[in-house]
Amino acid sequence: MSRKDLTRKRFIQQTATSVMGYGLLSGALPKSIFAMGNLHKQGTTDQVTFKNVRMETGFYRDDFEVTGTKTELFSMVIENGEIKAIQPNSDIAGAIDAKGYLLLPAMKDMHIHLDKTFYGGPWKARSKRQHGVRDMITLEEKILPELLKTSTERAEKIIELLQSKGSDFARSHVNIEPTSQLNSLKNLQKAIENKRAVFGVEIVAFPQHGIFNSGSETLMKEAAQMDIDFIGGLDPFSIDGSIERSLDFTVQLALDYKRGIDIHLHESGESGLKTVQYLINKVKENPALKGKTFLSHCFVLGKLEGKVLQETCEQLAEAQIGIISTIPFGHLIMPIPTLHRHGIKVMTGTDSVVDHWSPFGTGSMLQKANLMAQLYGFSSELELSRCLRIATNDVLPLDNNGKQQWPKAGDKADFNLVEASCSAEAVARTSTIKALYHNGKCVYQYS
Ligand SMILES: [Zn+2]
Hints:
Blueprint: H1 3-6, H2 8-15, H3 29-39, E1 41-42, E2 45-61, E3 66-79, E4 82-88, E5 96-97, E6 102-105, E7 107-112, H4 132-148, H5 151-164, E8 167-175, H6 183-194, E9 200-206, H7 217-224, E10 230-234, H8 243-256, E11 260-265, H9 270-285, E12 293-297, H10 306-319, E13 321-324, H11 336-341, E14 346-347, H12 365-375, H13 381-387, E15 415-418, H14 423-429, E16 433-438, E17 441-445
Parallel strand pairs: 2-5, 7-8, 8-9, 9-10, 10-11, 11-12, 12-13, 13-14
Antiparallel strand pairs: 1-2, 2-3, 3-4, 6-15, 15-16, 16-17
The structure holds zinc ion.
């Protein structure tokens, strides 16, 4: 999905007005709002200046490697949700003091289920009774009616958790199945509406109980017409019994309603690889889906080696199919560095955060970047700084040669102020998020 399409909802958000968190770092809230109102509101524009913003400007090197990251303090002007100008640091009256904290891009949680979580309610660990996806479907049929009663409030709570970890955007899967009908979606849309000014969400209509397995075809068609962004899917062979029938339905629905595709694929054997290959061919047949199609988890890639892995990566890259991995560790290690080397779009997400699937999940994308660094042994300054890309949807302050590439005037004012000296330190130490700005507005401040 193009950046333009992705920002459709965010455009609407930009037009929403909010006084939330104006200039929280400059002192007490009422005083800051007063100061902003008087000093910076000019006509319809909404200008805010920051001072003492730490930005990365390059790498230090010796004759062997990158030995450190250069930073300098700057002033930064924000206007109408965009970074208007970056200037030499100066003590401008009324400017928000960023106190030397590091400027990093806002994080993007690209796989989460905001519609079903225990977060915000009583603690509950996972039961050992259920094994595998089919058992979980049976469990969901039992517990979803109860979860639906609080799902709007809990989605809002989890959005607040994500903000506190530096994320201002999520791709949320939402259950579409006969038990919740379209109510999971409707409840989530209420939460998104309530958070519209402070957080961006794109939605995957997710047939969690299988399209044909649960008879969700009509519901999926209805959901596809309800302001969603992606058509989801689940293990076409093991749940729906047919790779072709399941994927043909998904692809046609995406084409009919001009949506992207994001399929959960847990199958790691022969059927997993066949599913990947079938989807690659369908996307090649329908170029409109290039860059808009994603495989979530796609564990089968972790089982491939040598020539088969290489060929599969080449084909995924050619079809512009992205992989969204929660970066599993233990029995299966995903070949994320190999995917990156092939130019495949790789993103991550928290997936489950304290729900019936998993009691874990911190909601932190920085923690995912840290996990990636530890898993693949990325411990040097350069490697650690590169790991940040998995958390920010590929936005990095410096390119691989140390040239400053973010932020630039005209970029969206979606950023974090972090208690770290550089990206590498932020990843290695999962540094504290001191403030998150979305569309130029402070939407979270550490206290
Ligand atoms: Zn998921």
